[in-house]
Specification:
homodimer, TIM Barrel, eight-stranded parallel β-sheet, 14 helices, globular, Nitronate monooxygenase (chains A, B), Aldolase_TIM (chains A, B)
Chain lengths: ~325, ~325
Amino acid sequence: MKANRITKLFNVKYPIIQAGMIWASGWKLASEVSEAGGLGIIGAGSMYPDVLREHIQKCKKATSKPFAVNVPMLYPDLDKIMEIIIEEKVPIVFTSAGNPKTWTPHLKSHNIKVVHVVSSVKFALKSQEAGVDAVVAEGFEAGGHNGREETTTFTLIPMVKKELTIPLIAAGGIASGSGILAAMILGADAAQIGTRFVASEEGSSHINFKKEVIKAQEGDTRLTLKELAPVRMLKNKFYQDIEKLYSTSPTIEDLQDLLGRARAKKGMFEGDLEEGELEIGQISGLINEILPAKKIMENLIAEFEAAKIEASAIEF
Amino acid sequence: MKANRITKLFNVKYPIIQAGMIWASGWKLASEVSEAGGLGIIGAGSMYPDVLREHIQKCKKATSKPFAVNVPMLYPDLDKIMEIIIEEKVPIVFTSAGNPKTWTPHLKSHNIKVVHVVSSVKFALKSQEAGVDAVVAEGFEAGGHNGREETTTFTLIPMVKKELTIPLIAAGGIASGSGILAAMILGADAAQIGTRFVASEEGSSHINFKKEVIKAQEGDTRLTLKELAPVRMLKNKFYQDIEKLYSTSPTIEDLQDLLGRARAKKGMFEGDLEEGELEIGQISGLINEILPAKKIMENLIAEFEAAKIEASAIEF
């Protein structure tokens, strides 16, 4: 293994990052990925402060290797969350959905490495100015909450790479070793992988949701609710209800009323496939089995090596 | 140069196909690309039958190498267009926007190679069943008319590749040699490139439009008019007018009235940057200069070779 800018920054073996995802990535998944040489991330977005502390402590017991916590900055208990992260000496924090200037200096003053998630060139540069250590650039095909620009991974990565000097992590649509190699050829130093790890044994989502993810085919997800916050989900009954509402020219309030509270928990954690919100990426169409996280890592690495050999045989 | 399935099929040197684009790709651009070792395509979508015949004849005079004609099958004079293609012995036809069963057997009975453009796995397989020689799978980031599934190049290519047995051409978001290599690693046999060739000296679009394409940045295009036929365009005044209309909950007829007739011609051929429809892909953000088509081909090939060397140096 040759160190690159991301493996050096995080002190991990492979430039593979398991995305921090609500109702999917707790300590079990994160510690398994870190043990296998990647960077596991605990997704704080679906956790109360005390629950997050418990996940961090369990993760530290399960692995001595680096791991991270992902913090969506629209979180209500943000001060408390950051306090716990600092107290528990979490080595790396991924922030998203907010201004990277707000927390980066404070976290870095505690020797925490900070990565910010963006979906445009403009916010990649703002993050760099804010002093983050690296940027995740996430394409339109990614699951869950997403940018307004709708720029895809294939076009976003080279456009960000052209402007950015700090390390760049590609996200959105990557679920295989050939995907990792393609993202790196387009300009990324590493790949962040979400959807593939949702369909893992250690992922904390409900088994109903995991089974739905591996059943999904090309075209089965959609980015919707753009007036609130754009989010990519499976086209289940709840999605059809959104579509029906759209056909009546709804107000923002109508959309908020339909969304209600805890739709994502209902779908992904409680396994209600009809009424719940099932956030997942387009690349779910390529995933057909639930596997242990360690096996997913082994497959990604083997596929990457195979793709490199195939690439070297392509000639013009 | 090592032949692959696409270079063998078309009898060209490089697996680089210049997309057939309305108001952009006439005989000048197509013949230059073919002369440079790629496959040039005349876009019939903006041509009356007699105009198309003239372009085909001029292309044949300008190059003895293979070229193709792209035919959107919603064309009103389709019988006449196909008759001319057969009479003029065009060796390769790319069809789009229609059922591949309708014309494939007839064209193939005249020894014409047929390629169909799709944006989903489902229609890729339907095209294969219809007997086409190859499929173009075009991602959400592509300029102009586009699919309803919104599947991106990064996720569409591996998903189509997994199911398809005939050769696969990737399109959408590709404008550099590293993009070609990335698309091939994801599973494509070749790359179709549109936006990069719009900003060519030989492209037949108005200079105003070409200059607007090279000025475009990440986030400057949008897929819109999904209720009519989804189309990706620059966010100019006409696009803002569409957005304003959307805010009033318009009917399909309202949208059709705003679109009117010949908007694309007004924008791309007559150079009206305010009232015209300016169809272009997301990757326009990466393109900064208008170049001769021959130079574009040389750059793509040099970048491809450089990307291959870089790829071989990536290690885990």
